[in-house]
Design brief:
This protein is mainly alpha-helical. It has 21 helices and 5 strands. It has a 3-stranded mixed β-sheet with strand order 1-2-3. A hairpin with a 5-residue loop joins strand 4 and strand 5. The radius of gyration is 30 Å and the shape is globular.
Amino acid sequence: MTVVYKQQPTDRLQESLSQVQGLIERQREIENLVSGQDAAEPRSAEQLNLQQNLAELQLRLEYLHPADVAYILEALPLEDRLLVWDLVKADRDGDILLEVSDAVRETLIEAMDQQELVAAAGQLDADELADLAPDLPRQVVYEVMGGLDEEERAQLQSALSYEEGQVGALMDFELVKIRADVSCEVVLRYLRRFDELPSQTDKIFVTDEAGFLRGVLPVRKLLVSDPDALVGEVMATEVVSFRPDEDAVDAALAFERYDLVTAPVVDGHGVLIGRLTVDEMVDVIREESDSEVLNLAGLKEEEDLFAPVIDSVKNRWSWLAINLCTAFVASRVIGAFEHSISQLVALAALMPIVAGIGGNSGNQTITMIVRALAMGQMQIGQAGRLWRKELGVSVINGMVWGSVIGLVAWLLYGSASLGLVMLAAMTLNLVLAATMGVMIPTVMQKLGKDPALGSSVLITACTDSGGFLIFLGLATLFLL
């Protein structure tokens, strides 16, 4: 029997998660009652409730889509996660492992023995197995490969030969291809021989006898074409195709730009070797977005929300150490002006404003530059032009908002000179923020690093130290 999974909107998914959490909590309560009973006593009502509660929990999981089960697993603490994982039917393990995050997948794989892993991996197609293989023990991969036929083994080896993040590692080998010299009627008869077409089939690939890609025949065009017309007469010859060694992020951006559902992958000679599908590209875009957010915050990798404390510490410590050093530099800048602050206490109250608005402006600039670099909209040679544009924005914002806070400082402390110092300091710190906001990701890109890596930490450090130095320096020169 084929199970039809009901798609869950966000609110329904949250409701399912709450129901699962409620059943788990109830399970723990019943377990505590049962554990207090004498083992020699006959089966009690609590023991029966325990079995019924597990059966209800298993039933709820059974009708959830694998992606929804993955969402629930990611939202549960480790002990509850493993309880739910044990209740998932074995024939769904592989699909769910593909859906969960890398960090959570690691905890699930650790809880499975070798035979369970072999059974789960054996349910997957070659392209899906290639996605999962890097996280599986080597012996499991070898055993699964031994059960594949020659064609599937060759496909898996081909996918594994490419690095993570390349098109070849993500391509799908299930596709429909035809020749150009057959009629549309022949193609329709050919398609009816399939029990089911590969998912995301919006086009049929047209090749010659040697396998070279000659064009594509959209299914929507096939259905309305004259049955006697040859494929070569109705097919599209201008095709967006990809090489297996191309960057997957670039391919995902092309999918978004051209509204693609599938696209062919060809080797260096133009031979069709696979295809890319929109579902894989959506995953690439999401993972790239998540990676940028994590890198901006200085996190090394995606983190399991309920990971052990030591794992979270390892993931976060490096940039915290860098931030500690930059904070120490900022404190030394303040320390160098202790005499000035002691003479004019208002400086201590106002200097966080200068540093704070500089950091905010710098993060705005750096976010735009990182995004432009990630989407290929900006080249390194354009950095100077963008820097001049950001300087203009900073000067205008500095003059406007510096005048506002300068007026407030004048009214609060009765010193017009202090207000002018605030105006100058805020403008100069916004100029510094714009400069560093363009320079940091550009330099990172030039060095071959991810331009988002630690950018938020670095820009905040520059605007804090720079803001304190500019404000306190101007105050010392003109107010004392």
